[in-house]
C-alpha cells in the first residue's frame, strides 16, 4: 500500500497537481477527517476490495467504534491514508449493506482492484 500511495502522490507532484484535485464535492479536503494529513489525501480515489471480513470504523484505530462490516470482496474507494506502520484508509463503501457509508478500514485488509 505504501508503494501505491507513494506512486500516486509522486505522479500528482510531477504533474504539478494540487493533491485534492479529482475529489468529488462530497469528499473535498475540507471534509476529510483530521487524521488524513493533507499530504496523504489521494489526488483521485483508489478502488480497493476487502480481502477478508473487516470492520468499517469511526476512526483510524482498532478501538474505534465499528460502523458496520465489510464482507470479503466488498469494494471501497480509498480517499486518504493515515500513513505509518499500521496504516488506515479513509473512504466510502461502494456496495453491500454499508453502501454509501464513510469510514476507516485497516489497509492490511484491502487490495487494489
TrEMBL record:
Coiled coil: none annotated. The keyword Coiled coil does not apply. It comes from the Bacteria. Residues 53-111 form the SH3b domain. It holds the Pfam family SH3_3. Gene3D superfamilies: SH3 Domains (2.30.30.40). The keyword Ion transport does not apply. This is SH3 domain-containing protein. It comes from Streptomyces acidiscabies.
Amino acid at each position: 500500500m505504501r508503494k501505491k500511495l507513494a506512486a500516486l502522490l509522486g505522479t500528482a507532484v510531477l504533474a504539478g497537481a494540487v493533491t485534492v484535485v479529482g475529489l468529488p464535492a462530497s469528499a473535498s479536503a475540507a471534509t476529510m477527517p483530521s487524521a488524513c494529513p493533507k499530504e496523504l489525501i489521494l489526488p483521485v480515489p483508489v478502488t480497493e476490495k476487502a480481502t477478508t471480513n473487516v470492520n468499517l470504523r469511526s476512526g483510524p484505530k482498532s478501538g474505534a467504534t465499528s460502523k458496520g462490516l465489510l464482507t470479503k470482496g466488498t469494494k471501497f474507494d480509498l480517499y486518504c491514508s493515515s500513513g505509518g506502520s499500521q496504516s488506515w484508509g479513509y473512504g466510502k463503501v461502494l456496495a453491500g449493506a454499508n453502501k454509501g457509508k464513510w469510514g476507516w478500514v485497516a489497509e492490511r485488509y484491502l487490495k487494489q482492484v
